[in-house]
Amino acid sequence: MLENEQAKERINDQQLENQQMLHLLRNLQQPVVNIVNTNTNVNPQQSSIVIKSKTTALVLCIFLGWLGIHRFYVGKNFTGLVYLFTCGLFGFGIVIDLILIMVGGFRDKSGSSLQ
After folding, report:
1. How many CA atoms lie within 13 A of 10 on its CB side?
2. Could you please report the per-residue DSSP string of 5-39?
3. How many domains are contained in the chain?
4. 38: in domain
5. Which helix (H) or strand (E) segment is 48 a member of?
6. In this structure, how many other beta carbons lie within 10 angstroms of the beta carbon of residue 28?
7. Which of 15, 32, 37, 51 has its C-alpha lying 20 to 30 A from 66's C-alpha?
8. What is the Cα Rg of the chain in Å?
């Protein structure tokens, strides 16, 4: 019987502790987060994109492709230098680029199609 009463007393003490903890947790002040939205919905990179001409790239590729000028025109400077030092990848790169420009598969540095 004494053990039963002690067990009940421990349970009551535990419940009291739980209630006190809940009371403390409820009274804790939550942190305040201020969010200031300064979004103007303007993408500066998007406004600086210049659409390159398919015709210009084709003419440059035909006449100056071995120098990689058409690659510099669309912003692909590294491959432009490769074409410059290898004479248009020994002529194979020029042929491939001509075909890509004509069928519309050639893209500028940002990945946009030529217009």
Report:
1. 6
2. HHHHHHHHHHHHHHHHHHHHHHHSPPPP-------
3. 1
4. no
5. none
6. 7
7. 51
8. 36
Average pLDDT, the chain: 85
**Does 62 reside within a domain?**
yes
Confidence (pTM): 0.59
pLDDT tops 80 at residue 43: no
Q: Which residue has the higher pLDDT, 28 or 107?
A: 107
State the DSSP code for 74.
T
Check if the beta carbon of residue 63 is closer than 8 Å to that of residue 23.
no
Range of the domain at 58: 51-103
Nearest to 50 by CA among 73, 67, 78: 73
Where would I find the H helices in 28-104?
44-47, 54-64, 69-73, 77-90, 92-103
